[in-house]
């Protein structure tokens, strides 16, 4: 078991685990050009001998608006405040705003961003190999705490449906569980007979998709203009409509993903050939996610672009006979189409840290369990 440094990344496929090595190599190059504009972190590769994982390492310095994919301070303070502004949670709103404001200053003082995250692909949803249940977690934890003695060690994007054994191994090793959000699972392993295929709303969306107003194009994009259009469409939805603390992917990052095979792009083109919608899939371990979804929000809602992109993603899960983790957001919309909610957790190891910093992590976990998880369930977020 070893950590690969920059000089070890030139041969991406040397040990048969080229995707994660290629991804980190791309990220190291991309950060120089700010290809993920609001991500500030240091990337490494962990090679266990059987698997390789991208690893992000935050120094703990305050980076304004660093995306939640690397910053727990953003995830539990900045992003939480934004969610409260966009969702009606009734009488919970006032105490939750107070909690996020107070906790933000407290978490910052405790340097909560001094964190090493394993298998961090810098996406909203990290996926894990299906043949890895965490049997080598003890050795991984020992290696990382020895290398970064003043950092917490963490894993994001875990849920009981997809990662039950991994969650259990982490708990047994003393990792602290922090509920983070509610994601929506579409189980497409039965193909066309999957339960969501009977949902009336999804059937309407499928008919809209096949009506022919847009062509579904699975293609290898080549022009700079196309990649810039995809960046624009993603930004219109995830940054302008939702939250600028989402990862700000750029055309350069999208091009790297297509080139090295860790991102599959499908577009919706109108009669004139203009791209008005995009879905980008990331796949691992019998699960796909859709870190890239975007459309021209300036077009009339009756065009149904988001409905068609959703239908495309769900249809893809059935076609591959796999599970779609469709992330969080648009909760009611996803439930109507058969999405099953699952609480997602981050697991963090802090036993090697000073007592005052351990207390902060345990307090954050307790607050998340007592307040955040019940709110997510009660308001179906």
**Looking across the biggest beta sheet, what order are the strands in?**
1-2-3-4-5-12-6-11-10-9-8-7
Helix content: 40-55%
Number of helices: 11
Over the alpha carbons, how many angstroms does the gyration radius reach? 20 Å
Rounded average pLDDT: 88
Largest sheet, described in full? Answer: 12 strands, mixed
Shape: globular
N-to-C order of helices and strands = EHEEHHEHEHEHEHHEEEHEHEH
Question: In the residues, how many domains can be counted?
Answer: 2
β-strand percent reads 15-25%
Distance between the termini: 40 Å
Number of strands: 12
Unreliable stretches, pLDDT < 50, 5 or more residues? 12-16
Q: Label the structural class.
A: alpha+beta
List the helices and strands and how they pair.
Blueprint (H helix, E strand, L loop, with lengths): L1 E3 L13 H15 L9 E6 L4 E6 L14 H15 L6 H17 L5 E4 L18 H11 L4 E8 L4 H9 L3 E12 L12 H11 L4 E4 L5 H19 L8 H10 L3 E6 L5 E10 L2 E9 L9 H16 L2 E3 L5 H6 L3 E10 L5 H24 L3
Helix pairs in contact: 1-8, 2-3, 6-9, 7-8
Question: In words, what does this structure look like?
Answer:
This protein is of the alpha+beta class and 381 residues long. A 12-stranded mixed beta sheet has the order 1-2-3-4-5-12-6-11-10-9-8-7. A hairpin with a 4-residue loop joins strand 2 and strand 3. Helix 1 packs antiparallel against helix 8, helix 6 crosses helix 9 and helix 7 packs across helix 8. The two termini are 40 Å apart.
